[in-house]
Amino acid sequence: MVLLQRLTEYGDRIAGELPAEFYREKQIHWVLDIAADGLSAKLLNRKVSGRQRDQMLTMPVPYVQRSGTKVPPYLLVDTAEFVLGVPKAAKDGSVSEKDRDEASRRHGAYRDLALRWASSADGEPAAEAARTFFSSGPVALDLPEGVEAKDTVAIMVGTCWLHQLGSVQQMWCEEVRARKGGAAERAGLCLVCGEYRPLLATIPEPVKKGAIPTAGGSNEGQLVSINTAAQGREGLTQLVNTPVCHRCGGRAMAVLNHLVASDRHRRRFRDDGVLLWWTKQTEPDSALAMFFDDRPEAADIEHLIDSVITTPGPAAAERADTDAFYGLSLGLNNARLVVRNWIDVPLPAAKTNLAAWYADHGVWDGWTGRTRYFPLWQLALSCGRWQGERYAPDSAPQGMEADLLHCALHGTRPPARALPLLLQRVHADRRVDSPRLAVLRLILNRSPDPQDHLMPQLDKDSTDPAYLCGRLFAVLESVQDEALPDINTTLRDKYFSAAVAAPSITLRRLFADSGAHFKRLRRDKPAARYALERRLFEIYSKVSDDLPGHLTDVQQGRFIIGYSHQRHEDLARKQAAKERRLAAVPVQAEPAQDTASA
Q1: At 290, is the secondary structure helix, strand, or coil?
Q2: What are phi and psi of 584, to 5 degrees?
Q3: How much is the pTM?
Q4: Most-buried pick from 16, 102, 185, 559 (CB within 10 A)?
Q5: Average pLDDT score over residue span 158-174
Q6: Rounded to an integer, what distance in angstroms lies between the CA atom of residue 527 and that of residue 244?
Q7: Most confident of 77-81, 139-143, 223-227
């Protein structure tokens, strides 16, 4: 009930952005244009191809979920089968007698409903024209080629869309309440608004088909659906044990459909499901918008970390409980919505969690001298398979993006499966890049063991054997790079996985083999030999007596981060040396132009 309450509260705030009650946005394929006197009409084609989406005619029209063999009509805007009596056709174009009879029944029910509205709308010229037109019997028009039974048809009189009239909207509300109130209408205390009102028998509107990504077939989804006695408490079906009034039920589902259609308030996961989010009082906060952006700006992230964590201002405390952040994670199981996660936290707490999220996974870039931060989708995809020049599409573990989002918003640890999955990919791909390092940092920084909390840059004072082993391997790789710059198969290609899993045997062997590389460097690059030899022996002396035989998953993570930190430090050192060399070269003056020859 809390979820429905929050949806209806938000609906009251954005009432001006929502369609009329029990209306839904639909594409219009044909327009039945009725003359002002109601004696004639013509059918206008508004069909466009899928490539011409910008030319589609879409608008909110009467809608309610309908099912069964004798489905009732919508008011005025419906399919061509209802509005024009066009029967369904088989794939070969043939039409059965049964389909003709059903089309005739549906068209008759549609006309009866339209006439009931037209007769009750006194004083409206458009209603009088519609009453005259539909009173003359079944619609008989020369239909143009291309009209199909499933096409949506709207009605105009002059420049007036009939379904936009206030009298139509009012009657449609009454019609929906009559249909969704059940055979015996009941009243009671609505658990959403707390008022005594007529109650729904079923939820009037599902979530749109295709709005929620799913691995299976896409269907419309019901938020509350109790169809059999086995599903309901005490064997009762429908909404008997979930009393919701017509207004709250309709408003909640209208808001839900508004959110799933909004690029601003929706995060569609790449594999399965969607996250909807909104705030209680204010407009969506810029920090939240940044988090859900696929390409957040580093400057905005640094400002968030600084304002919330590093140097929070007094305004942060003043906003303590004035606003709230709501997040709703949904999946789809056949035709039922699955609420996977419901987030209801104060807005300042949500912003603090997001700032901590970025601070915990930021990766120092030795080339640029800045910390890099990554969007949610890239962190999830980095746990997938590397394929040549990029990560293989759709290779991220199922549900990883949703799990990481939950971790970010709640300020909790990443899922336990993240570390072994990531290590598996690192060993298989022999690739350690910044997104993967960001996930490793996030996992370790949220470990209960303080030893796992690592700095974003090289920690020269660390005595952790796993971290030092990673640094040692990076220096050994640098030695090989300097001695044999054109080698095809590097130390990382051949020995990285072995060194990560069992550093004692691998690193001792590589340390001994480095003597041949230093011999070459002593001859060709004495300055590089001296710097690398000093760096190598400095690290080796700290860990030589305690080289671990095997590393756990967490220790392997510390090894990889130590390796990365040392690599970035070496890159930064190279870049600085290059800049010093360039600065030391005097700029040659341009030769004076020979004016005579010119």
Answers
A1: helix
A2: -80, -15
A3: 0.77
A4: 559
A5: 93
A6: 79
A7: 77-81
